[in-house]
Amino acid sequence: MLQAVINAFKIPDLRRKIIFTLVMLVIFRIVAHIPVPGVDRERLDQLLQENQLLGLLNLFSGSALRQFSIAAMGVYPYITASIIFQLLQPIVPRLQQLAEEGEQGRAQLNRYQHWLTVPLALLQAFGQTQLMTQQGILSGFGLFNGDTALRSIAILLSMTAGTMFLVWIGELITENGIGQGLSIIIFGGIVASLPTSIGQLFGGTARENVFGILGFVLLGLITIVGIILINEGQRRIQVTYARRVRGNRQYGGQTTHIPLKVNSAGMIPLIFAVSIMVFPGYIATLFASSDRSWLREPAAFLARWFDANSLQYQIVYFLMTVGFTYFYTVIIFQQQKIAENLQKNGGFIPGIRPGLPTNLYLNRVLTRITLVGALFLGTVAVLPWIVARLTGVQTLFLGSTSLLIVVGVAIDTMRQLEAQLLMRHYEGFIK
Fold first, then answer.
1. Which one of 73, 91, 238, 348 has the lowest number of neighbouring Cβ atoms within 10 Å?
2. How far is CA 334 from the centre of its chain?
3. What percent of the chain has pLDDT over 90?
4. Cα 130–chain centre separation
């Protein structure tokens, strides 16, 4: 492993990509510490521990929300815009056509996603600042107050600009660095917050619960191994291409395989499920202190029902994660049009007729293997609650999701470095 790292730095262009990625991460961390004025940090820390939606947003902002900086929203508005366009592609013919037009079509889709990110970022910035103002965390904000209107507009524009700046940095990393830029930014934020999280785990009264901490660490290691196995797990479907002769040349005749991944959806189902589950609680927070009883009482009911520490919440959360895993996997699989492309190129699965039978066969296999991935993601979703009950150690919300991101990004980045080294006849990371 160490020799592979040394070999990577010996290659000038690969060394340049690694250094460029590190420099962009340093710039990101600097921006993440430029705070919005008038923030009460102590009350903000308390709110982040209580509000799960803000915990999710803090994760995708690379812990910038904990500082309530100009980059407090991170790249979450862009991720939301990307998910919206992925869901709209099977519905809107124009978007489907652009997706099939190659590099130029994808560039146009990416431009549309950037345009949608701006209003989404403005709306999210307004929602966050309103919540902070109601909770007494942010002072001097009032968009419809003549005395604070200009200050409020400046805050909203600064936060929106911070999000677009991070999106731009992520795209620069994708083009000129190593790994997928947006994932690297989220990865860097999670890793940067690790020292604080470890200090909270082993500090204070937690020292008295030694066996609980050991159990927590053991479950964390088991989770990491499970994430690696599920992310790398795949079912290989054998494919044979018919032999064709054109002139004096012969084409086809070889055998290959289609890798169907156990977890094709990644962590997107977790984002879907948690966004829907915490939204009622977020609404309840906004109206809990209302003077009107017809608003306050329903808000109190929502707060009780959607309490993250309750059993019914965790059951519904688990089922929604499993359901969204199947939903997103089907959408991605349909967009790939594997059976249609096989038929066009003269490929077939032995024992399965080309066309519709092949499509039905692949769907049947994908449904079976996705069950394992869906149950795993559902378990990851409720794992912090389970760990807290088993060990007595209160874990940070989305701790298992953070592990899923960190391990997935690390594996993907290592693969890219591996490919770069093997292209230059160096021994890679994986032996």
1. 91
2. 21
3. 6
4. 25
Please report the domains of the chain, with CATH numbers, ordered by start residue.
1-208+402-431 (1.10.3370.10), 210-392 (1.10.3370.10)
Q: How many residues does the chain have?
A: 431
Place of tokens 């919440």: 313
pLDDT tens digit sequence for 295-342 = 667 767 766 666 667 788 888 888 988 988 888 888 888 777 788 888
